[in-house]
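Below is one such protein, fold included:
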Amino acid sequence: MVAFVGHFGYLQIGCRLVQTESPKDTKVDGEQMTGPLIKTYKIIIVREAGPDPVTGEVLGYAEEHITVDATSRQAAYELAQMLDTLKFRGQVRRTIIDGEEHFDERY
């Protein structure tokens, strides 16, 4: 269960674990799953320091720690991008999932 309080109110996202008849026959993102379909990922979103290209305001280095439950690293990445509260205006955004930098697989 993830609870998030932001500028627009309170958002609560719930996940329910679904058991299959044969977990050995289940594949997620092409990988054989032998345990639960949902895994907990620890994510760090990093904003590198840099100027705003329009106003010139300098935004310093910042990071945000998020924990999400998802079916894959890519799904965790997408959830983290929606849940983070850091302000980005042209700065480099890095996403680290379970200690390893992750790049969006869609591009």
